[in-house]
Automatic annotation (TrEMBL):
Full protein name: Putative GTP-binding protein 6
Pfam families referenced in this protein's UniProt entry, alphabetically: GTP-bdg_M, GTP-bdg_N, MMR_HSR1
Organism expressing this protein natively: Zoarces viviparus (Viviparous eelpout)
Residue ranges with Basic and acidic residues bias: 59-71
One term under GO cellular component: cytoplasm
Hflx-type G domain: residues covered: 302-466
PANTHER family: GTP-BINDING PROTEIN 6-RELATED, GTP-BINDING PROTEIN HFLX
This protein's UniProt keywords: GTP-binding, Magnesium, Metal-binding, Nucleotide-binding
Length: 523
């Protein structure tokens, strides 16, 4: 009765009712209108600390250690504590623990002809990616792989009768395997059950393998909650299978001790409750994110989202552009699962915020992407997108098509799509690299080549899209000019002339805010 045991293990979590306090309007005010401190004595490092802390979220671990003021830290902690308890997230997250280790047989169902055939890739490359996914997981190893023809990879009957028998024989003859990974987006629960019965081992699809990877790499509450949400369909499928087994034994439709509910109904209700709980916690996080976004906008720092296929070098590029030593690029699929924000400078010394995002993958089920929609929302709200491509990868064209498809499904605004900068990364790995797409920028993030050209291109687009410029303004320190600038623009530097009671202030300011400034102080 594993199903019943699992249901019972959920109960404590679902029954625990904790009063959550949403972000209050006073917290909002505090974040948006916090007066600048240490203005008179402002030196560039303090200003950097101020601006960094102003745009920092709890998730942006990488901005830590940048000299954040203690008082701001406390306020941040207070505000972050408001939405959901760590232990509660851990409980939700732990419920569906991943398998410890597996020796895996990978099957790639290949469509050789017809409308379902993939034209930009080959069965061998898709198999290589599937193997890469499995090997990303610690203690999971591929022991055998097989490409098997099919006409209907998305149907319940993936393989024809003869092929299925051949496959079953091969799997049964392979010693020591503990799992089979069928490289399709998502298996029907009934197919999963049928395969498991025929092969006598656990069966995974892309959805479940990618989820395992996500799970192993998740660090923050938000990532953990998003993963727990993405697991709900898996739990539903499992439930269906376990219920089918119970029904065969005549147990699933019996009422539980006077409750008026059958075991199936109890399980379904608990799953619904679990889903609602996760969604509500994520909604609170979404509100917090949107608050941080408006705070960043308010501070007038333009944001640049760096996106692309997984492992293309996004994190390495942001590290190279910002010098942020906290960033840890890894040769691993889905190393980045949390959106983090990092400040960097453009040629005119304008500070921009680079947003590191979760990588894309082909045939990633929509539901999985949907679960990460709160994180991906940052992309929609940025001022500019930079699409990083691993130009050394044999599937680079297919990867680009997939990234563009996901962006289209996410309904990214046209203005962002048309101004998007495409970067060809890892050119150091390509012999005699030649740029065949004139609008793209060739770089090597690892060897820090081509970055000046990229910074200039980013600045040009930012100026075009936001109308923001870097200006040096002379301010009278006895007037409220400087504090106004702190509130309405992004102050980059203050050079104080103590004898004259004035300062030269470098700011990033929009045309509209500059107009207001002139009207107020120089009119
Ligand atoms: N040779 C070479 N390797 C690079 C370059 N850029 C990144 N890499 C390597 O590619 C691997 C992945 O880099 P990341 O920056 O973690 O890639 P990512 O796109 O952030 O990956 P995910 O967060 O997993 O989606 C690491 O081993 C990097 O060192 C480059 O320009 N040249
Ligand atoms: Mg990354």
């Amino acid at each position: 009765m594993t199903a019943l045991r699992r249901v019972l293990s959920w109960l404590p979590v679902l029954q625990r009712r904790r009063a959550h306090t949403c972000l209050t309007s006073s917290a909002t005010c505090r974040l948006l209108h916090k007066p600048p401190r240490a203005v008179g004595a402002a030196c560039p490092s303090q200003l950097r600390a101020f601006t960094l802390s102003a745009c920092r979220s709890r998730d942006t671990d990488d901005l830590r250690g940048s000299g954040v003021h203690e008082e701001e830290k406390e306020e941040d902690d207070e505000e972050a504590d408001d939405f959901i308890d760590d232990s509660e997230v851990e409980e939700l997250f732990r419920l569906h623990a991943p398998a410890q280790q597996h020796r895996v047989f990978v099957v790639h169902p290949d469509v050789k002809w017809g409308s379902r055939k993939q034209h930009l890739t080959t069965a061998e490359l898709m198999m290589a990616e599937a193997v890469g996914l499995v090997n990303t997981l610690d203690n999971w190893r591929v022991v055998e792989q097989l490409i098997m023809s099919t006409k209907t990879p998305e149907k319940k009957k993936i393989f024809g009768k003869g092929n299925f028998q051949t496959l079953t024989d091969k799997i049964r003859q392979t010693a020591g395997i503990t799992a089979v990974f069928v490289n399709v987006e998502r298996l029907f629960p009934s197919s999963e059950r049928e395969f498991q019965e025929a092969w006598g081992v656990k069966v995974f699809d892309r959805y479940s393998v990618v989820l395992h990877i996500f799970r192993c790499n998740a660090r923050t509450k938000e990532a953990k909650l998003q993963i727990s949400l993405a697991e709900i369909p898996l739990l539903r499928s499992r439930l269906k299978n376990e219920m089918a087994n119970l029904d065969q034994q005549g147990g699933g439709s019996r009422y539980i001790g006077g409750s008026g509910e059958t075991l199936v109904e109890v399980q379904q209700r608990l799953l619904r409750e679990r889903e609602m709980k996760i969604r509500s916690a994520l909604e609170k996080l979404r509100r917090k994110r949107s608050l941080l976004r408006s705070q960043r906008r308010h501070k007038e720092f333009p944001t640049v989202s760096v996106l692309g296929y997984t492992n293309c070098g996004k994190t390495t590029l942001i590290k190279a552009l910002t010098g942020d030593v906290g960033l840890q690029p890894r040769n691993q699929l889905f190393a980045t699962l949390d959106v983090t924000v990092h400040a960097g400078q453009l040629p005119s010394h304008m500070t921009v915020l680079y947003v590191d995002t979760i990588g894309f993958l082909s045939q990633l089920p929509h539901r999985l992407i949907d679960s990460f929609s709160a994180t991906l929302e940052d992309i929609k709200h940025s001022d500019l997108l930079v699409h990083v491509r691993d130009i050394s990868h044999p599937e680079t064209v297919n990867q680009k098509v997939n990234v563009l498809r996901v962006l289209k499904n996410m309904q990214i605004p046209d203005r962002l799509m048309s101004s998007m900068i495409e970067v060809h990364n890892k050119t150091d790995l390509v012999d005699n690299y030649q740029l065949l797409e004139p609008d793209a920028l060739p770089i090597s993030a690892l060897e820090q080549r081509g970055l000046d050209g990229l910074r200039t291109a980013v600045e040009d687009e930012i100026v075009k899209s936001t109308g923001k410029r870097v200006l040096e303004l002379s301010v009278d320190l006895s007037s409220p000019q400087l504090s106004w600038l702190y509130k309405e623009a992004a102050v980059q530097d203050v050079q104080v002339n103590a004898d004259e009671g004035s300062a030269v202030v470098t700011v990033i300011i929009s045309a509209a805010a500059h107009g207001r400034y002139r009207k107020l102080f120089t009119g």
